[in-house]
Amino acid sequence: MAYIITEPCIGNKDTSCTDVCPVDCIHSTEEEEQFYIDPKICIDCGYCVTACPVSAIFHELNVPSDWRKYIPKNKNFFK
How deeply is 25 buried, as exposed, middle or buried, from its count of CB atoms within 10 A (0-12, 13-18, 19+)? Predict the structure, then answer.
């Protein structure tokens, strides 16, 4: 399991989450409108959840139903 970054990150891309990640698993590109968490590298520490200023990060099992579409979007970013 991993954490998922959801809709509140879109257009924001605050780097607070990347700054606290001990395994550097949060990435994006210039073209992307949000960050993504690599599920193969994430160690489920939860530091990013606390650091996110827009409350966009949820554990995969706790993603609100309206934002569950971000689960496959996040995983597909790393394929």
Answer: buried
Contacts of 1 (CB under 8 A, 6+ apart): 39, 44, 59, 60, 61
Instruction: Quickly count: other Cβ atoms within 10 Å of residue 15's Cβ.
Output: 12
Ramachandran area for residue 21 (φ above 0: left; ψ -120 to 50: alpha; else beta): beta
> Is-contact 28 50, C-beta < 8 A?
no
The share of the chain scoring above pLDDT 70, in percent, equals: 99
What pLDDT is stored for residue 79 in this prediction? 87
pLDDT of residue 1: 67
